[in-house]
Amino acid sequence: xxxxxxxxxxxxxxxxxxxxxxGAGVSRPSWSDADMEARRWLLSRITNAxxxxxxDAAGNIFGRxxxxxxxxxxxxxxxSVPNGGHLDGALGVLAGLECLRRIKEEGVHLRHPLELVSFxxxxxxxxxxxxxxxxxxxxxxxxxxxxRDAAGTRILEAMARHGLDALQAPAAxxxxxxxxxxxxLHIEQGPVLxxxxxxxxxxxxxxxxxxxxxxxxxxxxxxGTTPMGDRQDAFLGAADLTLKGRELVLxxxxxxxxxxxxAVQVKPGVANIVPAEAYLTYxxxxxxxxxxxxxxxxxxxxxxxxGSAWGLxxxxxxxxxxxxxxxAAEVRGAIVAASQxxxxxxxxxxxxxxxxxxxxxxxxxxxxxxxxxxxGRSHSPLEFTSDEDLERxxxxxxxxxxxxxxx
Length: 407
Ligand SMILES: [Zn+2]
Hints:
There is one protein chain. The protein has helices at residues 5-16, 33-48, 90-106, 130-136, 155-160, 192-196, 234-252, 289-309, 329-341, 356-360, 387-406, and strands at 52-55, 61-65, 71-76, 114-118, 179-187, 200-206, 208-217, 221-222, 258-260, 264-267, 273-274, 277-286, 313-322, 325-326, 346-351, 366-371. Helix content is 35%, strand content 22%. Strands 1, 2, 3, 4, 5, 6, 14, 15 and 16 form a nine-stranded mixed sheet that branches. Strands 7, 9, 10, 12 and 13 form a five-stranded antiparallel sheet that branches. A two-stranded antiparallel sheet has the order 8-11. A hairpin with a 5-residue loop joins strand 1 (52-55) and strand 2. It is an alpha+beta fold. The protein is globular and about 80 Å long. The longest helix has 21 residues, at 289-309. Zinc ion binds at residues 77, 88-89, 122, 186, 355.
């Protein structure tokens, strides 16, 4: 049994047209008008395929084939970052849909039912993983009112606009006993598979993330009349930490360690005033939980020492703390067996981006299949995977699902 590439491509094109701006990629942040249109489109595709469509209290979309429990799940997300590509997330959902259609068309008898899922807000318009957190019981009701998008709109209002009560989202929790396995096909979003010319990546573990919001406070002064030695310039703390944090990670991290200062705000933010306050986001990623912990601790100590060296007060707030997740051996084994059966080369690697599989993987056996990303590009309109690689990945997904559902 093989997937129908033409049908998968048609679905990718149709979904990719929703929220597309010519030359500027796809923008489908969760609960936007484009996301709502994509949700309606996906539900109609699920119904047309003869699957049982459903939406839970967190807005997660399901397509079920055959009743029963425990279920083998396949999916990803259909939301996108602003100006993103047409494959991140969409490939996992639409290849999953294609697999279910093929299995249904062939009338294969399986021991376990199959279920397609598209999780809400994986990309983080409102913080990220809203759907998979709710689905796995990790979403706390008291945290929901705090979730806002970049414009300050709360998820409460964003969902209410579509007749949904975000506070009810924890009711989306599924008993982990009902989940036999979860499999996600995704573009690699990195250069490894392409550079080694290997078509299939078997993901061993998903990177952990520690994100801090760090504020340096100094003193606003006149940019002309205040001598250089007489300043408490808050931005110098931010700049110094950015450079020293990089040195720390290069010296004490592993090849999978990353540090990124992605956002900086300076106050009052005027050309002729010495900055009184500088806020930066400081994000660490690493596959080893132990190394991540060490880097996080040393980074916080570094922020304090950099602050005092420049005469600043440093305050550190933890914004995100996601532990690295090793993926299930039995799902990895099924992916390897499927690749071998199809005569496809594969390699084991780590996922350096966040994925719903890491959330589901905390409560149930989860696995991920990667296909090559041209030039490693993603979260960009330049995202591209060849038709051959899409087909190979989707066929490995199909064979993996058949294996997991058969016994
Ligand atoms: Zn994704």
